[in-house]
Amino acid sequence: MAINMATLAATFAATAGEVITCKAAIAYEANKPLTVEDIHVAPPGPSEVRIKITNGAICHTDLYYMAGQDPEKIFPRVFGHEGAGFVESVGRDIKDLKPGDKVLPVWMAECKKCPKCKRGKSNICDTLVYNWSNGFMPADKKTTRFSRVADGKPIHHFFGTSTFSQYTVCDEACVAKVNPDADLSKICLLGCGVPTGIGSAWNIAKVTPGSSVAVFGLGTIGLAVVEGAKVAGAARIIGVDRDGSKLTQGLEWGLTDILNTTGLDKPVEEVIREMVDDGVDFSFDCTGNPGVIYSAMECANAAGGVAVILGLMDSSKTLSFHPSKLLWGKSWTSGLFGGYKGRSQLPELVDKCVGGVINLDHYITHKMPFSQINKAVEMLEKGQCLRCVMDYDN
Fold this sequence. Notes:
By secondary structure, the chain is α/β, with parallel strands linked by helices. It has helices at 5-15, 60-66, 115-119, 126-132, 184-187, 193-204, 220-232, 244-253, 268-275, 290-299, 346-354, 373-381, and strands spanning 20-26, 35-41, 48-57, 82-90, 102-105, 146-148, 154-155, 167-171, 175-177, 212-216, 236-241, 257-260, 282-285, 306-309, 331-334, 364-369, 387-391. Strands 3, 4, 5, 8, 9, 16 and 17 form a seven-stranded mixed β-sheet that branches. A six-stranded parallel β-sheet has the order 12-11-10-13-14-15, sandwiched between helices. The chain has a four-stranded antiparallel β-sheet with strand order 1-2-6-7, with no helix packed on it.
């Protein structure tokens, strides 16, 4: 649906500084359907930004926390971290954003001020560290900007983004200003899964031209790894999954070989080592399954291979291996958000999508109104979609 910017500007001028009443999907307890109801969204604090979310999607990380698999189990909460929209209003200390700017709420915070940001060795930021296990605003660490209409009780934030709401408030560290030509109904996917996969190929593993790659698990993140490896020039990309339809689908993204693990008479890592002498140059686990993580590590070439863990494993489980597995130079590594810094580097990926380097269209398998978010959750849980993009104005 086309956005009338003049109408939008008038709306924002009228709501700036006021409490906004809007629809949000609230998780009141683990493993229960979300409740779509009116909430109050307070104006932004001095270092905060209030955003009108126009489009969003659901990621498996949302499902992980909604199921209470994390240690903190914070409820009630407005989840969501894949969304896009317009700046509605800004706090008095915000200098680089203004109402009407197209933005992505980014859970991969980048304050540019903390010791971690100044160190520059990774994309980890102190604001991210706080948001990871807390539900309050990082500015004061004790308040929220969401409350129930019925009784005024506070509702917790999630990852600094909380995109399952028509309006959200983010710390400045969690807002990336993007290309004004970007299609918000597409770039909302750049909140998590797609940059995690593409960036893991480009920034973390640094896939090289002519190399061999194995990707375990062909959901959105796995397919994004495939696309990233293809763009990087990998010569052989092996897709590993137990779902034949996902393997066939992966050919569209760039798989050169498919390996269905159902019914194998030997460990999958042995099969891959037979397909590629001594193992692949780069392997990626995109499942979070301990056994699969281990197989992905085992199939990487012992002499300098790189194995990357992307799947989010249940916090109650562990994985062990013998250090001798790495003696010949194999690396076993991981990272968040594909190594991208949220504010300074994610806009570059948006530009690549606008320029056609990355195709976001084939990740969008379904579209529906925000009011049907529980249906979208169910489809993702059952593996019936990659990404279902929701329209928050319908």
